[in-house]
Amino acid sequence: MSETTTSAVESKLAELGLTLPEVAAPVAAYVPAVTTGQYVYTSGQLPFIKGELPATGKVGANVTPEQAKELAGTCVLNALAAVKSAIGDLDRITRVVKLVGFVSSDPAFTGQPGVINGASELLGEVLGDAGVHARSAVGVAVLPLDSPVELELIVEFS
């Protein structure tokens, strides 16, 4: 595959009106993704758009669940960009093994799974059966930079 050829995964993203962003620069002492064997582990991905967080605060207080669900989709785009930086071509993904999602939650908010569905549903749309994964959706008190959502992926590739 030449560098000018678009992968099937990126073509599917384009059909959905989405593009992979540049890999977000780390905000601390880590790298965006690490490979070991046939797996890529991403660092926690925030919903950066062009280096900025579009919203901050707690879901259920400052951020609506609907906004947070959309931000989870942005996080997964950033995670896929990190995966691509590690393996070169998203068509090499054979399975998303695990998604761990963190939701900065108001103490009364209990809809974390619905928020993280924004990421899970997008992975399914883009990757089909390879996007079906195990998952955790965890409510937390605060996330880096006051982000409402953060996620990480474990991806198998060939």
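The record above closes out task 2.4. Task 2.5 opens with a second protein, given below.
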Amino acid sequence: MKLTLLLLFIVAFISVSPIQNIETLNLNQEKVKVTILGEVVEPKVVNLHPKSSIKDALKFVEPTKEADLGRLNLNERIKDDMVITLLPKKKDQCISINFASKEELQTLSGVGPSTADKIIEYRETKGQFKLIEDILEIKGIGISKFEKIKDHICL
């Protein structure tokens, strides 16, 4: 009876032992090396568990304000010798309605050759646009078209 109790105690002790917990964490598993570059305050090389994700790796760096994390698949598993490069946010380049060529103006949604000619004619006869809203004076550019292009134009 005493032997049975002793065995039960040993089994119970082993099952809650910190040594057992360490073994289940597999701390002896191989680590993978990941380099993190680009839009970070300080580039780093980190060693992580092979089942870690890019999200886990990014915990070791401080991204800059310009970093575009949306370009990364944060759930992607890391691989040994992987390089994670944080790219800057894309900056939309605006088309200057005061200086753009006919071809550049035609890159705007709904602006074809005829409307581009009218924009150029306006600035040649009346001078430069003072506000982007002044483009509404161009025949063929109404509120609907203006709403589509307003974030892509500048003076």
